[in-house]
Amino acid sequence: MPEKARHRQKRTGGRRAVWFAALLSILPAALPAAAQPAAGGSLGKIEHVVVIFMENRSFDGMFGRFPGANGLANAGAAAIQLDADGKPYKTLPRPLNTHAKAEDTRFPANLPNRPFEMSRFVPLSDKTGDLIHAFYREQMQIAGGAMNRFVQASNAGGLAMGYYDTKGTYLWKLAQEFVLGDAMFHSAFGGSFLNHAMLACSCAYRWPDAPEAMVAKIGPKGELIKDGQVTPDGFAVNTVRSAQLHGPKDTDPRQLVPPQTGPHFGDRMDAAGVSWAWYAGGYDDALAGRGAEDFQYHHQPFQYFANLAPGTPAQKAHLKDFKDLMQAIAEDKLPQVVFYKPIGVHNQHPGYAEIVTGDRHLRDVVTRLRASPAWKNTLLLITYDENGGTWDHVAPPRRDRWGPGTRVPLIAAGPMVKRGHVDHTPYDFGSILRTVQVRWGVAPVNEIDGNAYPMLNLLQ
């Protein structure tokens, strides 16, 4: 890494603790508890809820130019990023390619201090660097709702302020045809690991006896002294794999999250007699010990629970491969609730994937679904697990210590969904679970999903 880049990162890290303690105290006010609606109208006609969980894109980063949405034109002061001294950058630090550990020379060194359209330098079909997206770090970036520390708390320089105009993509066209949600916030600060847990159980996994080296250290005033995968009180918040499903390089069991025994949403659906399955690209190979290089083990949240351990009847019934999803669509045997996690090459994650390949994959999957008999009573929800460290201008509401985090795209489609509509209702992943609860009488896991807004405003 060039000397200037090293100096910038060192200086940035040294200033974080100065203002971290004050962030949570000035976040926007919490949302009121959601009303408890009845399962009538369009919702009552839905027989399948299909959730496709993509990766690491903020709303402004993908749909900031979408007509009628709360996008880049409304950014205001949040568009101007502050440095470690609390002063506006004169120009953005040159984006870094974090894999090469060097400045990304595809970008100019003097980008103005504001959001910039990335396809001028890196087309939609090419990969950018990855950006850090971690539990404590995102809270620093949100900066109490100012949304102006994304660059300063990043490890990728000005890349955090890049966005794409995606109006030529299939996903954009689907949003134009049906509904784009512009107030979907990912449920927890940080990365994919914790947000997948939130989708599965509205919780963070418990790990009270995690190795000390993995535990974050927080100072007496709430300042972050050392980052880590686990909070001081024993909750796993940053990427760590499961003792029940992990890669061949995970040889030390002490570094793996122990099987969880708390409730998850699958338990609640089982109790209510609602059929469900989590489908994942590359899952069968991973289960057989030959997982693909881009198979992400920490994207399999139900696999962390003891009652879904590999080889159990419940695991075989509910945790399946992508090819099983294609077969279920073709044979009209979809469960009532479907979660689908694409493998890395298809999930649009910055660093190891780009937008075009994932967009084509979505087009193929959705086209098959729309041609199936199940489509006539399906609610399709496509969203992103978290923002991937990229900027968005809208401050998230305050719910609890876990989040929610930054806005991500939400596209809803189906015969019961509105046409050509932008839904401004505030949602997080608990809203997906709440919609299922209201439709089929499923009990909440806890107050996070129990108090979430169900997605009724995007229905006809």
Number of helical stretches of at least 4 residues: 13
- What is the string of SSEs from the N terminus onward? HHEHEEEHEHEHEEHEHHEHEHEEEHH
Question: What do we call the CATH topology?
Answer: Alkaline Phosphatase, subunit A
The domain tally reads 1
What is the averaged pLDDT score?
Answer: 92
Number of strand segments? 14
Low-confidence stretches: 1-26
Assigned CATH class: Alpha Beta
Task: Give the structure's gist in a few sentences.
This protein is 25% helix and 12% strand. The chain has helices at residues 3-20, 41-44, 59-63, 135-142, 170-177, 192-201, 265-272, 283-287, 313-318, 322-330, 355-370, 429-440, 447-450, and strands at residues 48-54, 96-97, 102-103, 116-117, 162-163, 179-185, 217-218, 224-226, 276-280, 319-321, 337-341, 378-384, 407-413, 421-423.
Any overview of this molecule?
With 460 residues, the protein is α/β, with parallel strands linked by helices. The protein has a single domain, classed as Alkaline Phosphatase, subunit A, CATH 3.40.720.10. It has helices at 3-20, 41-44, 59-63, 135-142, 170-177, 192-201, 265-272, 283-287, 313-318, 322-330, 355-370, 429-440, 447-450, and strands spanning 48-54, 96-97, 102-103, 116-117, 162-163, 179-185, 217-218, 224-226, 276-280, 319-321, 337-341, 378-384, 407-413, 421-423. α4 links the parallel β4 and β5. It is globular, with a radius of gyration of 21 Å. The N and C termini lie far apart (53 Å). The relative contact order is 0.21.
